[in-house]
Amino acid sequence: MSFKHATLTTALLAAAGLAHAQSQPVIGLITKTETNPFFVKMKEGAAEAAKAHGAKLLSGAGKTDGDNAGQVTAMENMIAAGAKTILITPSDSKAIIPAIKKAREKGVMVIALDSPTDPADATDALFATDNYKAGVLIGQYAKAALAGKPAKIVTLDLFPGHPVGAQRHNGFLKGFGLAAPDAKSNELGKTPEVVCMADSFGDRAKGQTAMENCLQKAPDVNLVYTINEPAAAGAYNALKKAGKEKGVIIVSVDGGCEGVKNVGEGMIAATSQQYPLKMASMGVEAGIEYAKSGKKVSGYTDTGVTLIAAKPVAGVDSKDVKTGTELCWGKK
User: Fold this and answer.
1) Domain residues for 312?
2) pTM, entire model
């Protein structure tokens, strides 16, 4: 091959590589944090789907749950890097909206995963658990498990005003048979049976501290609702430290592999299992379709929820720990 032909071939290959890079869909995933196992699984699902479809995945996260500024910076960086679809679990359902609006004005499709914005139609679509239903399921279980004993309830919530936190909390109250706001409310319901409410931010250490504080106010608690399984683990640690772990029922939401293990070990009585891997893979697939056809997804897609319990109770449909382990967070 002559030098001229070699140079031409190199140029053609480079052009082909550039064309491929330009045609390769770029999809961004922004989670609340990088360390919560729920979001680790979500990132794993997105990465698998992106690889399978030849897309480029960019990922980012806030430093902590509630870090809106970190999520805004991640979104701006992803748009600058060519992302045409951004998947986001909003840390602050209202504060993130201006950044989402700017992205959509630039032609970027924005899909909320797990957590809706407030209002929900600020994004193109939402792929998430029915969080109110998740709360209802564990509320029904807790009611049956108490077997008629007067309830003295502690709720370890997320933080004020977050839709997911409100929906799970209020769904729990509804499932237990107590007065509760509906699924559209972002205010936490409060009834006389709830003897202490505290924010855990979905964090194990903060959950333990919150439970310790509640035990000072309500040492005779017999039921604990937690926003997620890390908070549940923290609550259990506090109860064990106080020698009260055997007399208190803990219910939660997530259904992660570690959480299901804790159900099997008796730390958590029941949990509502959700499927972040499915949320993420569906989001990536929607981004691929948008890159190909320009067609955007819209509205809410329920990604499913299953009650996992070590001990079944009458009148409440649940699956056992073996099933929960096989399905934990949608693993294949």
Assistant:
1) 131-273+307-330
2) 0.84
